[in-house]
Amino acid sequence: MDQIAPDAAGIGHNRPPEAQSQVAQEAARRRAFAIIAHPDAGKTTLTEKLLLRGGAIQLAGQVRAKGDRRRTRSDWMKIEQDRGISVATSVMTFERDGVVFNLLDTPGHEDFSEDTYRTLTAVDAAVMVIDAAKGIEAQTRKLFEVCRLRDIPIITFINKMDRESRDVFELLDEIEKTLALDVTPAAWPVGAGRGFLGTYDMLEPALHLLAEGSGAVKLSGLDDPKIDEMVPASEVEALREGAELASAFPSFDIEAFRQGTMTPVYFGSALRDFGIGHLLEGLARFAPQPGARPADTRRVQPDEAALTGFVFKIQANMDPNHRDRVAFLRICSGRLEKGMRLRQTRTGKQVPVNAPLFFFAQDRQVAQEAWPGDVVGIANHGILRIGDTLTEGEALNFRGVPSFAPELLRRVMIEDAMVGKKLRTALEQLAEEGVVQLFRPLDGTPPVVGVVGALQLDVLAERLKAEYAVPSRYEATPWGMMRWVVSDDKAAMERFRQSAPHDTAEDHDGALVAFFTSDWRRNRAEEEWPMLKFLKLREQHAAA
Fold it and tell me: Who's near 336: CB < 8 A, 6+ residues apart?
């Protein structure tokens, strides 16, 4: 590891070798990953079965099941359970065969792409779930592009092989051409649709059969006579021929995979709990352990003994009885211990971490310690924000937690003026959480919320009513877009602010924003105010 000089505050990064080696050993056991997919590709069902395989739960819920089986553990909000969709990021930690998996289940709906993007800043790998009948779909492509921006290694899981599906070579070619990824089959399906029998392990010859249900049967290769004994004669030739042809794809290269240019492909059925164990083995073997993270002053190595981490999500009211707010902290280096006090870089304040939490969706337990790659929850009373960096003393900020300009702008209206204060509190908390963006118009008119898609508005209304007892409705605004206004010329910003009081506001962090009725209006403003910049994307305040 590169030698790092002590920082200006006198906080050294080189601690006793014993402490550093323990951090390195624990970091090496961690795999932080997200699951990305188009809605209905089976992402939530796969999540449940991964947890089941990891020993974290006894009964996996299914999104389309009934009664108790309907209550999936990763989709814990009422609106998620009612609609059978994921609309919030949930975090689940489990251990299998000595490997600690931190699974971040991202929203599957495109209206929550900003939450998904922030979540992807906290992982080291992703599992891309593809429906065997539909192939690459629109949201899959969008989420993949987000992964590509960060060169996140991707393992592909082709789901629903036990239903009618497209030709396997056609699916692999589509992944290769549509996503510009090198594809290497880690497994090869035996049969398809109603005739789907299992998979052949291409990397370490073995048969995984649905009928067996007891793990892999090791083979010497495709010519092993065990195949003839275990696979129906009608499928043996097709398996051998298909696997031989598949060998024409590039061989698995772990460096290419970790650089984000190659994806190993697994096959299975999440609903029937097949292929999940094989996928977990692949994650354990190939997914990278926590790596170096760029900050504004230097790159932070995971095996440094001094703790660093960043907040990528705030969740309010995970326990409605306590009106709590929890900040999700991704640990980047060092060891987190219960009772530590950490420095919040943005404010310089000390933040006590008296009861760091490990999560299992909405369930939680106090963590005595945590290591690089882990995600822990910190009780938050409005102090921590998305994008905040916490350290043991060093003044650094992790980069890359963004805000995007919303595509829909609405005023939030209430019938009962007596709940006005509750509405303000609710909107503040939900904006901190990232459910919506909140803007306060400078002319004193009612608050404006900004969202990517209409489903976010439904979620906001549902949560205002259920969690804060504030019934609300929306009114359209005259604006079609919003931009952040930034400049080194503070006088020019103040003149702009005064020139358009009815079309300007402050966001949740007090930054100046401008509303425009059309793209033509925005272009006109850029021409009239060349000393100002009108941004569609900005770093979260803490890293700005």
Answer: 307, 309, 329, 353, 356, 367, 369, 370, 371, 374, 376
Give the C-alpha separation, 502 to 511, whole Å.
16
β-bridge partners, 155: 127
- Per-residue pLDDT reduced to its tens digit, 95-142: 888 999 999 877 655 555 667 778 888 999 999 999 999 999 887 887
Which string of DSSP letters, residue by residue, matches 357-389?
A: EEEETTEEEE-SEE-TT-EEEEE-SS---TT-E
* Cβ-based neighbours of 311, under 8 Å, separated by 6 or more: 327, 328, 329, 378, 384, 385, 386, 387, 388, 389, 390, 542
Q: What average pLDDT does the segment 189-198 reach?
A: 92
List the structure tokens of 419: 């709940």
Coil/strand/helix, residue 195: helix
**Any idea what DSSP says for residue 216?**
-
Question: Residue 467's pLDDT is what?
Answer: 85
Could you tell me which of 51, 40, 58, 92 has the C-alpha nearest to residue 280? 51
Taking residue 252's Cβ as centre, other Cβ atoms within 10 Å add up to: 18
pLDDT at 74 over 70: no
Please state, in angstroms and rounded to a whole number, the distance separating the CA atoms of residues 427 and 305. Answer: 39
CB 310 within 8 A of CB 398: yes
Q: What contacts 246, CB < 8 A, 6 or more positions away?
A: 185, 188, 202
Maximum pairwise Cα distance, the chain = 82
Encoded tokens for 141: 């492509």
- Backbone Cα Rg of the chain: 25
**What per-residue string of b and e applies to 417-437 under the rule 16 or more CB within 10 Å gives b?**
eebeeebeebbebbbbbbbbb
Distance CA 516, CA 518 (A): 5
Residue written as token pair 């089959």: 185
Query: Any alpha helices (H) in 435-489, and if so which ranges?
Result: 454-468
Report pLDDT digits (tens) over 465-515: 988 899 999 999 999 999 999 999 999 999 999 999 899 999 988 899 999
Q: Given strand 533-535, what is the order of strands in its sheet? A: 473-476, 408-413, 448-451, 437-441, 504-507, 512-516, 481-486, 533-535
- 383 by Cβ neighbours in 10 Å (0-12 / 13-18 / 19+) ranks as middle
Asked if 404 and 114 touch (Cβ cutoff 8 Å), the reply is: yes
Q: How many other C-beta atoms lie within 10 A of the C-beta of residue 123?
A: 27
Name the residue among 211, 196, 217 with its Cα closest to residue 267.
196
Helix (H) / strand (E) containing 28:
helix 17-28
Residues 278/208, Cβ–Cβ less than 8 Å: yes
Q: Model-level pTM? A: 0.78
Q: Do the Cβ atoms of 475 and 445 come closer than 8 Å? A: no
CA 327, CA 474: separation in Å to the nearest integer? 29
